[in-house]
Specification:
The protein contains 20 helices and 22 strands. It is an alpha+beta fold.
Length: 658
C-alpha cells in the first residue's frame, strides 16, 4: 500500500469514527449539520474538487458529479426535513472505500507486469583499461562497451558473452524457470539474472533498445489498443451518465408537479430524495472500473507466463479463434538442424563417413556443417585439411592428409549436395525419404550421405493437442520446405492440412482462403521475419522467438518469449477466461443497477440500498475481475527444452548458400 492509499485509509477510518461519535451526540439543528460537515468534507473534499473541475472543463458527467449532487442534496433534505445527516456522510465514506479497493486491485494487477521490468537494473559495471570496474548509469553505456556481471546480478544491457560461463535465469522475460547456459558467443538479454559465474559482456544494444525496455514499452502501450468490450463501456458511460442525470432531474420535478396540478400533495422533498437515491444507484463506476481491470489483469497474468499480448483487443481475437495456422521452421520445429541418420556406401562405414564430413565441414558456418560437427562431438579432428574451398549452391571441397593407410598423401574430399558430386562425375546413392542429404566422397570414391533434418520442438505436439481440446478444429501448416519434410512433421503432430514449397506470397494467398472459409477468427504463428506479411494479415499474429528477434516484437500482435508453441493454447485459454469474466460482470452490474433503479424510482429503495447498488456492486465486480490475475497460472502443455531459434533456412538445405 503506497502513501496515498494509506492516507485515504486514514481519512476513511477517521471520518467513520467521527460520524459514529456525532451520531451518538445530543446535538440537533444547525450545530448538528456543522458537526457532520467535518467528516463529510474530510472524506469527500477530493470528490467535490474533481466534480468542480469537471464542470470547469465542460466534462461534468462522471461519478464525482453524481456523488456530489446526491450527497449535497441528501444533506439539504436532512436539514429541511429528516435530520438524518449520517446517511449522506456514509454514502461518501462507502464511495471512498470502493475507490480504495479499486486502487488496490489496479496496483495488484499492475505488479504482475511491472515486476518484469523492476528486474532491469539502472546501473552497469563497466570494465576500464586496467581491468577495474566502474558503476555507471546503464542508460549512458554506449554500444560495444565491455561490462561485467557478477553471480546473482541482473544483466543491464543486451550483449554477447565474451568471457566466462554461467547459467542465466530468463524467467523475467520468458516465464521459464529452467536456466539457460551462457558461454562465449551467447547472446544475453537485459532483465535476466546471472546465476553462477562471472561473465564479461560486449554490449550490442543501447539501454532504450534493449529487450527489457522494448517489452516494457510494449506492455505499457497495450492498454491503448482497447477491446470491443472496453470501447462499449466507454461509449456506454458517455451516453448513460447524462441520461441518468436528466432522468433524476425529471424524477424530482415531474411527479410532484403533476400531483400538484391534480390538486394532490406533491411531497417535493420525497421525490427529491428518490431522485438523489436514483443518482447514487446509477453511478457507472462498477462497469468503468471492472471491465478494463479484467483485461489489464489478464494481460498481466499472461505476461507472467512469457506471453506478451500487445493489446486487450487481441484477447478477444484469441478467445474467438476458430482456426490456427502455423509456419514450420522455427515455430513447430526448433530451427536447429541435426544429423538424424548416417547411410554409408557398401564399401564404407559410419565412422569413416562421419570423419570425412566433419573434417571437410570444419570451417563452414552453414547450418548443415554445424549439425555434422555437433554429431562428431568432442572427438579430435586429427587429419590435416588444406585447399579448403566453398562452392556456392553445392558444398565444400578440400584436401585431407593423415589417413592411417597413407599418412603422407593428400586425398581430395567433397561434402555437399548431389549436384556437387554430379559435376565431378561421381555417382551418389539413394536419398529418398524426409530430410536433406549431405554427401561425402574421398579420392572420387563415394562414401555415403548423412541425413540432416530439423527437430520437432518438445512443446509442439502437446500444444497442437491442447488447441484441439480447446475446440479449435482447423489446424494448418504452411512452409517453404520440401513436401517430404512437411509431410513428416505434419504426421508427427497429427496435422491433416499442410502446404509445402511456399513463398511468402503463397502463404498469404492460402491464409486469405482460410480466413474466408472461417466464421471465427484465424491466428497465425510464425517467426516474425519471413512471415511478416502473413502475421500482419491474420486476425492475430503470434511471433515465436521473442528473445533476439526484434522484428517479431514489432510485427506480431502476440509474442511468445520462450518460443514454446504450447503457449498458444495457454494464450487462448487465458483470453477465453478473461472474456467470460467480462461478460459476467457486464450482466451482473447492469442487472443489479436496473433492478435497484426501478426500486429507487418507486420509493422502495433508500440511500443504503443505493450505496450497495453502487459501491457494493463495484467491489463484487472488482473481486470477480481480479480472477483474471490468476489466468497466468495455466501451464504450457509441455515446456520446450530447445528454446533457441538459430540457423533458420526456410527452404531446407537443397541449395548451399556458400
Amino acid at each position: 500500500m503506497n502513501r496515498e492509499q494509506k492516507f485515504r485509509l486514514f481519512r476513511i477510518c477517521l471520518a467513520a469514527i467521527l460520524t459514529a461519535g456525532i451520531f451518538c451526540s445530543p446535538a440537533s439543528g444547525i450545530p448538528l449539520l456543522i458537526l457532520y460537515l467535518v467528516p463529510y468534507l474530510l472524506i469527500g473534499h477530493d470528490v467535490l474538487k474533481r466534480a468542480f473541475q469537471g464542470l470547469l472543463h465542460r466534462e461534468p458527467f462522471d461519478e464525482c458529479l453524481l456523488m456530489t449532487i446526491a450527497t449535497i442534496g441528501a444533506l439539504a433534505i436532512a436539514f429541511l426535513k429528516t435530520g438524518e445527516y449520517a446517511e449522506a456522510v456514509a454514502v461518501m465514506i462507502f464511495y471512498q472505500t470502493g475507490e480504495l479497493f479499486e486502487d488496490w486491485a489496479v496496483i495488484k494487477s499492475r505488479k504482475n507486469i511491472t515486476s518484469l521490468m523492476d528486474l532491469r537494473p539502472e546501473t552497469a559495471s563497466v570494465l576500464n583499461e586496467n581491468g577495474g570496474l566502474k558503476e555507471v548509469p546503464a542508460a549512458t553505456v554506449p554500444v560495444g562497451t565491455l561490462i561485467a556481471v557478477k553471480p546473482g546480478e541482473r544483466i543491464p544491457l543486451d550483449g554477447i558473452v565474451i568471457e566466462g560461463c554461467s547459467g542465466i535465469n530468463t524467467a523475467a522475460l520468458t516465464g521459464e524457470s529452467l536456466p539457460r547456459d551462457a558461454e562465449p558467443g551467447t547472446m544475453v538479454h537485459s532483465g535476466t539474472v546471472n546465476l553462477t559465474g562471472l561473465i564479461k559482456i560486449r554490449t550490442e544494444k543501447s539501454f532504450d533498445d534493449s529487450q527489457a525496455s522494448k517489452i516494457l514499452e510494449l506492455i505499457e502501450t497495450a492498454s491503448l489498443r482497447k477491446s470491443r468490450s472496453e470501447r462499449f463501456v466507454t461509449k456506454f458511460a458517455r451516453i448513460y451518465t447524462p441520461l441518468v442525470v436528466y432522468a433524476a432531474l425529471a424524477l424530482s420535478l415531474l411527479p410532484p408537479l403533476v400531483l400538484t396540478l391534480m390538486d394532490q400533495p406533491g411531497n417535493w422533498s420525497e421525490w427529491c430524495y428518490r431522485a438523489l437515491t436514483f443518482l447514487v444507484i446509477s453511478c457507472p463506476c462498477a462497469l468503468v472500473i471492472s471491465i478494463p481491470l479484467s483485461f489489464f489483469a489478464g494481460v498481466g497474468g499472461a505476461s507472467r507466463k512469457g506471453i506478451l499480448i500487445k493489446g486487450t483487443a487481441f484477447m478477444e481475437v484469441l478467445a474467438k479463434t476458430e482456426a490456427a495456422v502455423f509456419d514450420k521452421t522455427g515455430t513447430l520445429t526448433a530451427g536447429s538442424f541435426e544429423v538424424t541418420a548416417l547411410k554409408p556406401a557398401e564399401d564404407s562405414h559410419e565412422e569413416e563417413l562421419l570423419s570425412v564430413l566433419a573434417h571437410a565441414e570444419q570451417y563452414s558456418d552453414h547450418p548443415a556443417a554445424r549439425a555434422v560437427r555437433k554429431t562428431f562431438g568432442n572427438r579430435t579432428l586429427s587429419y590435416e585439411v588444406s585447399d579448403y574451398r566453398e562452392i556456392p549452391g553445392r558444398g565444400v571441397s578440400c584436401r585431407i592428409r593423415g589417413f592411417p593407410w597413407d599418412p603422407g598423401k593428400e586425398f581430395p574430399a567433397l561434402a555437399g549436395n548431389r549436384l556437387l558430386l554430379q559435376d565431378l562425375g561421381i555417382v551418389s546413392g539413394d536419398t529418398s525419404g524426409a530430410g536433406t542429404a549431405i554427401h561425402a566422397a574421398l579420392d572420387r570414391r563415394y562414401l555415403g550421405h548423412a541425413v540432416i533434418a530439423d527437430s520437432l520442438k518438445s512443446g509442439a505436439e502437446a500444444g497442437i493437442a491442447a488447441l484441439r481440446t480447446s475446440g479449435i478444429s482447423r489446424i494448418a501448416m504452411l512452409t517453404g520446405d520440401t513436401g517430404e519434410a512437411a509431410r513428416e512433421i505434419a504426421a508427427k503432430l497429427g496435422i491433416q492440412e499442410f502446404h509445402a514449397g511456399l513463398l511468402p506470397k503463397n502463404k498469404l494467398e492460402i491464409l486469405e482462403r482460410i480466413i474466408s472459409e472461417c466464421r471465427g477468427t484465424v491466428i497465425f504463428a510464425g517467426d516474425g521475419i519471413n512471415d511478416a506479411p502473413v502475421l500482419a494479415r491474420a486476425d492475430a499474429g503470434i511471433a515465436m522467438g521473442g528473445l533476439g528477434t526484434d522484428i517479431a516484437i514489432s510485427s506480431a500482435d502476440v509474442v511468445l518469449m520462450d518460443d514454446d508453441p504450447g503457449k498458444i493454447a495457454v494464450a487462448v485459454q487465458i483470453s477465453r477466461k478473461c472474456l467470460r469474466i467480462v461478460r459476467e460482470n457486464i450482466w451482473f452490474i447492469i442487472g443489479i443497477k436496473v433492478c435497484c433503479l426501478i426500486l429507487g424510482a418507486l420509493g422502495l429503495a433508500g440511500m443504503w440500498l443505493a450505496v450497495f447498488a453502487d459501491v457494493g456492486v463495484m467491489i463484487l465486480a472488482v473481486l470477480n475481475a481480479m480472477r483474471c490475475l490468476f489466468t497466468g497460472n495455466a501451464e504450457s502443455p509441455e515446456q520446450g527444452r530447445n528454446k533457441t531459434c538459430k540457423g533458420k533456412n526456410r527452404n531446407g538445405f537443397g541449395e548451399r548458400n556458400g
